[in-house]
Every structure is written in C-alpha cells, then in structure tokens.
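Severity: low
Component: inverse-folding endpoint
Summary: output formatting inconsistent between runs
Steps to reproduce: submit the following structure tokens with default settings.
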C-alpha cells in the first residue's frame, strides 16, 4: 500500500472529464487538476468560458480538449466522452460541477422554474454519471465526483430556494445510491458539498449585501475561494481516498456545525 503523500495524491497523467468547466468551481478545479499533471477535458454550455479555461491550461503546457454541450442532453455528454477517449485516452476521473442557482419564494415558484432546476442540477448530474460510468465499468476503475452543496444538508437562512436545496439533497443521495450500484465495478462515487464560495454565481452586483450575510453566517467568517475546493477534489480523485465511496465531503468553513 502507498503511504507517501506524493504517491497517494498523484494524479499525473490521469485523464479527467470536468462538466461546468467554463466558470467558477468547475473551471478552477479543472485548472487545478491540470497544474497537478492531469489531462483535462472540459464540458460546458459556455464556449467563451471554455476557451478561457483552455487558454489557462495551455499556459501550463498541459493537454486539454473542450466541448460545448448541455448536461441535460445525454447524447452530447456521450459524444464528448467518446471523443475524449479517442483523443486523450481512458477517463480515470469525472468531476461534475455544472449547475445553476436562483431563488424565488416556494408559493411563487413556477412549474418551469422547478423543472429547470431539477433538469440541470439533478438529471444533469445523473446523465453525466451514467455516461461516465459506462466507459469506466469496462475497465473496472474510476472515480466520479459530484458537486452537491451544503444546501443539500441545511437550509440557508434567508434564502428562499426550495428547488435548489431539494435538487442538492437529491445529488447527495444519488451519489450514495450510485456508489452502491457500481461498487463491484471498481467505480467510487462521492460528492463535495461546498459552502458559500466566491464564484460568478455569487458575485453578481445584486448579491453585494447578501455576501456580507454569507461571510458573517460562516463560522470561519469568510467565503471560500474556488481554489479551496481543489484540495478536496484531488483527494477524492486520487488514491488518497481509495476507501472512500458514497461520502459527502462538506467543505463549508464550519457552516453546518451551527
Ligand atoms: N458558488 C457557491 O457558493 C456554491 C456553493 C455550493 C455549491 N455550489 C455548486 O457548485 C457548482 C458550480 O457552481 P459555481 O459557483 O461554480 O457556478 P458558476 O455559475 O460560476 O458555474 C457553473 C457552470 O456550469 C455551467 N452550466 C450551467 N448549466 C449547464 C448545463 N445545462 N450544461 C452544461 N454546463 C452548464 C455554466 O455555464 C457555468 O460555466 C454548482 O453545482 C453549484 O450549485 C456552488
């Protein structure tokens, strides 16, 4: 068994597929994986964002490949995965970060708002896991990491977002269920649940006052930098977490303790 940190956390030359890689947590973690020597394939709706991620990874002299696509569409994910396997090689790790957030009081939420949240945040994660596992199963090896949220465990004080919170609770249980379904295929499935994180999702001008509340409500008294999600992601991607499957790693500056 390995017990040296350089070996345990080594993801050099791993092939990693990242959804939501055009912005925020997905983009930062994709760059973090690349700077640790992985070959990263990036998938997102946002082509400009993908090009920015690609540029930053190329500056690290690492191989990368980008795909404009929608996690609501299984065939777009399947196409990207087939191309990644042809161009870069067999996918070792998948990191599913594509997601949306918005708020509206429950009694005013339209059916479309409810459905759209679940289509992207829960079905999108399921379709991604499904396509990723299909190629990993053949090799009996792989690590899938889903981005959930602390909102899947707690209810954010003052934020009326029943659809978001419920979709994230769904991601946590979907992760555990898939971890058990695929345990005999050598595929580990885990989630990371970030607390309030400084990404474009939270940096819109209308959020300025809300950010002070987020900082104050978090025991560590600040929001996370997206870079602070990279370490937990490398842990779950690498052999350092070889006995972890079905866990939800909460990375929240202590938020859920109170
Ligand atoms: N920022 C936070 O405070 C926070 C906290 C907890 C959990 N999260 C979760 O982390 C994940 C990433 O959030 P972020 O803060 O980086 O957000 P972000 O808005 O900065 O980035 C999300 C990315 O997902 C992409 N995306 C959205 N819908 C898509 C679709 N249908 N198909 C493909 N790509 C799509 C967007 O284009 C964007 O590039 C989300 O699942 C979010 O719910 C964020």
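Observed output (run 2 of 3):
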């Amino acid at each position: 068994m390995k017990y040296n940190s350089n070996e345990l956390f080594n993801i050099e030359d791993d092939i990693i597929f990242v959804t939501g890689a055009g912005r925020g947590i997905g983009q930062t973690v994709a760059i973090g994986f690349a700077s640790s020597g992985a070959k990263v394939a990036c998938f997102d709706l946002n082509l400009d964002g993908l090009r920015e991620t690609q540029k930053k990874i190329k500056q690290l002299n690492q191989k990368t490949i980008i795909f404009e696509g929608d996690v609501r569409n299984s065939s777009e994910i399947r196409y990207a995965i087939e191309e990644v396997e042809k161009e870069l090689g067999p996918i070792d790790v998948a990191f599913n970060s594509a997601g949306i957030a918005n708020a509206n009081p429950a009694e005013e939420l339209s059916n479309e708002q409810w459905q759209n949240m679940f289509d992207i945040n829960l079905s999108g994660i399921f379709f991604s896991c499904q396509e990723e596992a299909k190629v990993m199963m053949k090799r009996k090896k792989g690590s899938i990491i889903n981005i959930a949220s602390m909102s899947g465990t707690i209810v954010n004080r003052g934020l009326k977002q029943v659809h978001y919170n419920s979709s994230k609770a769904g991601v946590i249980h979907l992760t555990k269920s898939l971890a058990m379904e695929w345990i005999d295929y050598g595929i580990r499935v885990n989630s990371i649940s970030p607390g309030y994180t400084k990404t474009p999702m939270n940096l819109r001008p209308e959020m300025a006052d809300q950010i002070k509340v987020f900082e104050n409500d978090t025991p560590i008294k600040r929001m996370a930098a997206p870079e602070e999600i990279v370490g937990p992601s490398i842990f779950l991607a690498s052999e350092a977490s070889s006995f972890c499957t079905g866990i939800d790693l909460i990375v929240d500056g202590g938020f859920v303790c109170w």
